[in-house]
């Protein structure tokens, strides 16, 4: 059991004390009903949103926080654009073959 806890701590994302305090503070504000969202100014009721706000505020203060998922996705997307997968144009679908056989067309129509 102790090994499992130790392993989980190593695997889980690690946040600094400053970040943990900021998230704890925002969660407390949410529970009191004082936490408002950025643009609309509506009251935040979702705990996940409160955590996201806490992490964002900690980032602005200069704390070391892991990157957002969208930043990671953007990097992957850009990399896939640089190195696109080759498209094999010689593949013919089964439906194309079946329809050409039904209509009595020769093999020249498959090209």
Structural class: mainly alpha
What portion of residues is helical?
55-70%
Mean pLDDT: 77
**Beta-strand residue percentage:** under 5%
Taken in chain order, the helices and strands follow as HHHHH
Computed CA radius of gyration, to the nearest angstrom: 27 Å
Q: Using the alpha-carbon principal axes, give the shape.
A: elongated
Q: Main sheet?
A: none
Oligomerization status of the protein chains: single chain
- Residue stretches low in confidence (pLDDT < 50, at least 5 long) are none
Terminal residue distance: 63 Å
Number of helices, where a helix is a run of at least 4 consecutive DSSP H or I residues: 5
Q: How many β-strand stretches?
A: 0
How does this structure look, described?
- With 111 residues, the chain is an all-alpha fold.
- It has a domain at 16-84.
- 57% of the residues lie in helices and 0% in strands.
- The chain has 5 helices and no strands.
- The chain has helices at residues 2-11, 17-32, 47-60, 69-82, 94-102.
- α2 crosses α3.
- The longest helix has 16 residues, at 17-32.
- The protein is elongated, with a radius of gyration of 27 Å.
- The relative contact order is 0.09.
